[in-house]
Every structure is written in structure tokens, then in C-alpha cells.
Amino acid sequence: MIRDATLDDLAAIMALEHAAFPTDAWSEPMMREELRSPHGRYYVVEQAGRLVGYAGLRAPKGGRDGDIQTIALESAARGRGQGRALLRHLLAEAAARCVAEVFLEVRDDNPVAQALYRSEGFVEVGRRPRYYQPDDVDAIVMSLDVAAWRGAAEDTAAAQSPAAGEGPADTARGAWCT
Ligand SMILES: CC(C)(COP(=O)(O)OP(=O)(O)OC[C@H]1O[C@@H](n2cnc3c(N)ncnc32)[C@H](O)[C@@H]1OP(=O)(O)O)[C@@H](O)C(=O)NCCC(=O)NCCS
């Protein structure tokens, strides 16, 4: 189940953060600020009452751009579609906030995440040499046209005729984009 993150999830998110990003994990105060910020939205994946993943978007109200801040699953939960589901929740939220373009940075040595992003329509728009320290790894900067992503998602949904109220499209309802 994917649901909104709360401050009560902070400890569990930090445990996942340290496991997924051992050399450059965010600090707990940084993550706390992310969870509290009105300029973003965080989701968690819960299984049998336990958190196994989380992801966050930063997209200040009225802004044109947004950023995928982070996304991670515990290793045992990977490869089962939950990373894509989390990413789609973030992108639906970006669409609801009228964001035109979403950016992210991904390590050059992370082909799994790159494949996920490319398959949702992200394209490489730049590189930041040696961005990740202390590992000395380049960052690939990617961006996504949110309207195009949403159009493709709606086409797919229409073709599959899913039950109403399921999936990320529902997340967008009632948000402030008019
Ligand atoms: C990146 C991450 C969030 C992806 O989540 P996931 O649940 O494992 O991925 P999914 O099962 O949703 O798969 C989505 C796509 O990712 C790619 N992918 C997933 N596992 C893969 C693997 N073992 N090898 C290659 N590509 C893979 C594929 O493109 C896949 O699409 P497909 O199933 O249609 O082929 C997850 O692997 C993770 O937490 N990794 C560690 C933290 C991290 O690197 N975060 C990203 C920081 S930028």
C-alpha cells in the first residue's frame, strides 16, 4: 500500500535511507524538514505494517519546475513494480501542482534507476561531473515533460479501463491545479 508519509515515519525512512544510500544518506534533520515542508509531498510503501520504501517530490506552489528528491525501496522489495508505482505517484502529484517539468539527478553508476526514469519518459539534459562524493561519481540530470507524461498515462489507463479511484491519477484530484 502506498500512502502519504508523516513525521511518525521518520525513523523508518531514515533506516531505509541509510541502507539505500550508505555513503551519502541525508541527515535526519534534513529528512524531517522534507517531511514537514508544504512545498513537497512524500509517500511511503507499507507492507504488513512495515515501511519498505519511500519517495519525495519538491514542487513549490506556483512554480514551473519540480524535483524528484529521492526514491528508495529496501533491497528485498525491489524489482516488483513498487519503485515505478512510487514514481508515478510523485509525477501525478507534480501534474496536480501544475508543474510543467520535473527534474532529477541520478548516479552514473545506477543503471536500474536510470532505466526506470527513461521508461517513464525522462531524458538526459545534463551531467554534473563528480557530483556524488566521496564516491567521485557523476550525476546525470534528467527531465520530464509532465503534460506529455500525463497524456501517455491517461491513454494507457483508457486502453486498460482500470477501476475508478485506483492508481496515481486519483492522487491528482482535488489538488490546486485548475
Ligand atoms: C531504483 C528503485 C527505486 C527502482 O524500484 P524497483 O521497485 O526496484 O523497480 P521496479 O520493479 O518498479 O522496476 C521499474 C523499472 O526499473 C528497471 N529495473 C528494475 N529492476 C531492474 C534490474 N534488476 N535491472 C535492470 N533494470 C531494472 C526496469 O526498467 C524496470 O522496468 P520493467 O520492470 O518494466 O523492466 C530501487 O531499485 C531502489 O530502491 N534502488 C536503490 C535506491 C536508488 O538507487 N534510488 C534511486 C536514486 S536516483
TrEMBL record:
EC class of the enzyme, as a word: transferase
N-acetyltransferase domain: residues covered: 1-147
Signal peptide: none
Molecular function via GO: mycothiol synthase activity; N-acetyltransferase activity
Keywords carried by this UniProt record: Acyltransferase, Transferase
Source species, domain of life: Bacteria
CDD domains listed in its UniProt record: NAT_SF
Enzyme Commission identifier(s): 2.3.1.189
Region entry Disordered, spans: 158-178
NCBIfam families registered for this protein in UniProt: rimI (TIGR01575)
Name assigned to this protein: Mycothiol acetyltransferase
Phylogenetic classification of the source organism: Bacteria, Bacillati, Actinomycetota, Actinomycetes, Micrococcales
